[in-house]
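User: Teach me something about this protein's shape.
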Amino acid sequence: MTETTSAVLMDGTAVARRIVEQATADAAALKAVTGVTPCLATVLVGADPASVTYVRMKQSRSAKAGIDSRHVELPESATTAELVAVLTELSEDSRVHGILLQHPVPAHIDERAAFEAIAPEKDVDGVTMHSFAAMAFGEPGFASATPGGIMRLLEAYSVELAGKHAVVVGRSPILGKPVGMLLLARDATVTYCHSKTADLASLTRQADVLVAAVGKPRFLTGDAVKPGAVVIDAGYNPGNVGDVDFDSAARTASLITPVPGGVGPMTIAVLLEQTVAAARRQLGRR
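Assistant: First, the predicted structure itself:
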C-alpha cells in the first residue's frame, strides 16, 4: 500500500485461515465418529498452466485440512459427453463427497452441460442451476465458492449491507450473478453492470459496496469509486493484478481487498468448508 492509501485492507488470508481451521476440526470430528474422511474430487480438462496450478493448490490445501483428494485429468480433446460421463460417475460414487470441475473448460465443451452433471449434493463449488436457485430463493444448498467467500469476508469486517447500494460489475453465472443474489438476500439494493451498461462510472460511484468481477485488469479506477465505499476485487489477471486499480481506489475506499490475498483465499476456504459439510450431510451427520 502506498503512503497515500487511506482504505483498510481486508485480509482474506487471515479470515480464510480461521475458516479452514474450523473445517479441519470438523473433518477430524466426522472421521472420528464415522471412520470416513471427506473427499473432494477435482476434474481438469486440458493442461492450461493456470488451471493446473489452481488444482494443485486446492489439492494441497485439502490435504492440510484433512480432506482426501481424487483427481481426474482429461485431454484437451475430450468431448462434452466424455466429461459428463466422468462427472456422472463421480456423482454416483459414495466415496466422493464434493466435486470441483476446474473452469473454464476448453471452448468446444458445453460447460453448462458439464456443470449440470454434478449432483447438487456434491456441488461444493456452487456451479449448478440447483445451487443458483438455492442462493436466489434462500433455500439450503451450496453457495458459489467465490461469492460465498466474498460474503464471509464482508461479515468478518462487519460490513452492514441492509439498505446499502451494492453494485456488481460482471454477470457471470458463477460469480457476478450469484454474488448479487447473496447481497440481495442480506437486504442490499443490488445493481448489476456489464459490458453493455451505459455510463458505468455514474453507477459505480453510487455504490456503498462495489464488487468488481469483470475479468479485465485494473478496469475500475479510483475515480469510479464513491468516497468511503467498500471495494471487493474478485478479479485475478496475469501478473497478480485484479480488476481494480488498487492504488487509486484505495485512496477513496474505506475498505478494499488486495490481489492476491483478498478474495482468492476465501474461495478455497469456502470450498473446503462446503466439502466437509457435504460429507456430513451425505453421512447423515447433520
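Now, about its shape. The chain has two domains: 34-121, 145-263. The first strand starts at residue 8 and ends at 9. If you'd like, I can walk through any region in more detail.
User: That's plenty for now, thanks!
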